[in-house]
Specification:
The chain is about 20% helix and about 25% strand. With about 300 residues, the protein is an alpha/beta fold. It has a single domain, classed as 4-Layer Sandwich (Purple Acid Phosphatase, chain A, domain 2), CATH 3.60.21.10. The strands form three sheets. It has a six-stranded mixed beta sheet with strand order 1-14-2-3-4-5, with helices on one face. Strands 6-7-8-9-13-12 form a six-stranded mixed beta sheet, covered by helices on one side.
Length: about 300
């Protein structure tokens, strides 16, 4: 075989192998990340927060359901879900099965766009182009059914809401907005400075980590903002990282914990799932994160 024929065949074979790995293995290779976040008052005991995002559940994903259920063994002080739980009109029972044992823990959540609307097939190359803000929605999803089930078990729906509760022995303020990817965020509904005399810590939730939202939380005195949406880039280039974030966040911070200001941190989850129309991950395994909050 001459070089002119061998080279294209080698490239094709490599592409097939990479696709097989990304679809057959990595999208199911769940990881639990652990990270310390220095946000608590001096002398406070550590508090654990389990951050889940982008479950994108559909029927027929027992490997995902089983893995998420086992996270209850961590016994976190708080569970935070930053949205995009659904990817199918039939996904609510699957999501509740996955989250079931965790719903016995204190929890809070905000929705993502794929809680309201099902994903649609699209050209993946569109993600590499500038976001013009145009949205084409899929079918409506039964988000109200899932939301009602979670709140019935005691989790807070933080859609444009602020609450204060005791978490791990500390007074913690929690606040959230709806999804900026749908232009449904209205931070002005929850705006206002954190009452530091009445709380030990304030945590903000937004499915999409739009910088203007993180700036708003930080300006009001929130010490930690939790988001998802990016899938960590989903297809990352080794030694380069994410190509896109699908929002205004820079690609360097597509996943993980990052200092936003001197007094506020941002954590972006790479998420647990994918769109059913792009069921692959490369150099970006699905994940949940156990954040251990420690004194500054």
């Amino acid at each position: 075989m001459n070089a002119a024929v061998a080279a294209p065949l080698a490239v094709a074979a490599a592409g097939v192998a990479a696709t097989g790995y990304a679809w057959g293995y990595e999208r199911k290779a769940f990881r639990l990340r652990r990270v310390d976040v220095p946000v608590l008052p001096s002398g406070a005991r550590p508090v654990t927060v389990l951050h889940l995002s982008d479950l994108h559940i559909t029927p027929g994903q027992p490997w995902k359901v089983d893995w998420v259920r086992r996270l209850a063994r961590l016994e976190p002080d708080l569970v935070v879900d930053t949205g995009d739980n659904l990817a199918s009109a039939y996904g609510v029972p699957c999501a509740l099965d996955a989250l079931g044992p965790l719903l016995d823990r204190p929890g809070a959540f905000v929705p993502g766009s794929n809680d309201w609307f099902a994903p649609r097939p699209k050209n993946p190359a569109r993600y590499l182009l500038p976001d013009r803000g145009r949205r084409v929605h899929g079918q409506r999803l039964p988000w109200g059914e899932l939301r009602t089930a979670m709140t019935a078990r005691g989790w807070y729906d933080l859609t444009h809401r602020r609450v204060v509760d005791t978490v791990g022995g500390l007074r913690v303020e929690l606040a959230g907005v709806s999804d900026a990817h749908l232009n449904a965020d209205h931070y002005e509904r929850i705006a206002g400075p954190v009452d530091r005399a009445a709380t030990d810590l304030a945590i903000g939730l937004s499915h999409t980590p739009e910088p203007r939202l993180v700036d708003s939380f930080a300006a009001d005195g929130f010490s930690l903002v939790l988001s998802g949406h990016t899938h960590g880039g989903q297809l990352r280039v080794p030694f380069y990282g994410a190509l896109v974030t699908n929002c205004g966040l820079d690609r360097r911070r597509a996943r993980g914990l990052w200092p936003w200001t001197d007094s506020c941190w941002l954590h972006v989850s790479a998420g647990l799932g994918t769109s059913p129309y792009a069921p692959v991950r490369f150099a970006c395994p699905p994940e949940a994160t156990l954040l251990t909050l420690v004194p500054r």
